[in-house]
Every structure is written in structure tokens, then in C-alpha cells.
Design brief:
about 110 residues, alpha+beta, 6-stranded mixed sheet, 2 helices, about 20% helix
């Protein structure tokens, strides 16, 4: 697991996941605005999860920045056959635990 400070009140946690079937590592990224997870990118399964809950204009701006950082969007269109899902706050908190189920639902 790697913690990366992206900017003021913006953080990313990267979980490295071993893929036994293909014999290589993939990443599972969780992007936080303040202490709330807002975007989860599952590189192995080509999934982008976005929290539908709206907290503030700043958090909305952070979410858009995170989606651009994940390189899965080009002019508001998802590219490269990735699936984009909108999920509620409870689901994004569960997804933010990572593939191993570690509890990182909220940064302290």
C-alpha cells in the first residue's frame, strides 16, 4: 500500500494486487477528497467507481480531477472499454477498503 498526497486535501491510496492468473501486479487506487473516498479505480477489472453523493463544490472539483488523473476519460467520454459505475456512499466506503478488505474507508 502506498499513500500519495496529490495536493491540498487530496490523497490517493494505491493497493498493489497480485494477479495469479496473469502473473503480474495491478493497482487498486482509492482517491480521497478531504477524508471521504470519492473515486475508486480497479485496474485489474477495468472499473472506475464514482461516489454519487455530493458534499461541496470543492469535492466535486476534486472528483473531476481524480477522474482525469486515472486517464480513463477523454472529453467526458470513457475510453478503452472501461466500465464507469456510479455508487452510493456506503458502497464507495466498502470499495475503499481495498481488495483485501483492509479498512481505509475514511482517512483519519
Amino acid at each position: 500500500m502506498q499513500l500519495t498526497n496529490i495536493g491540498k486535501n487530496k490523497t490517493m491510496i494505491t493497493h498493489t494486487v497480485w494477479n495469479e492468473e496473469h502473473n503480474f501486479n495491478t493497482d487498486y487506487d482509492v482517491y480521497f477528497s478531504y477524508s471521504q473516498p470519492v473515486v475508486v479505480v480497479d485496474w485489474e477489472n477495468r472499473m472506475v467507481y464514482e461516489n454519487v453523493a455530493k458534499y461541496s463544490n470543492t469535492t466535486t472539483r476534486h472528483t473531476k480531477e481524480f477522474l482525469r488523473l486515472s486517464n480513463r476519460f477523454d472529453d467526458e467520454q470513457i475510453i478503452d472499454k472501461w466500465t464507469h459505475k456510479f455508487v452510493n456512499e456506503a458502497m464507495i466506503n466498502e470499495l475503499s477498503k481495498g481488495p483485501g478488505g483492509h479498512t481505509y474507508a475514511r482517512l483519519q
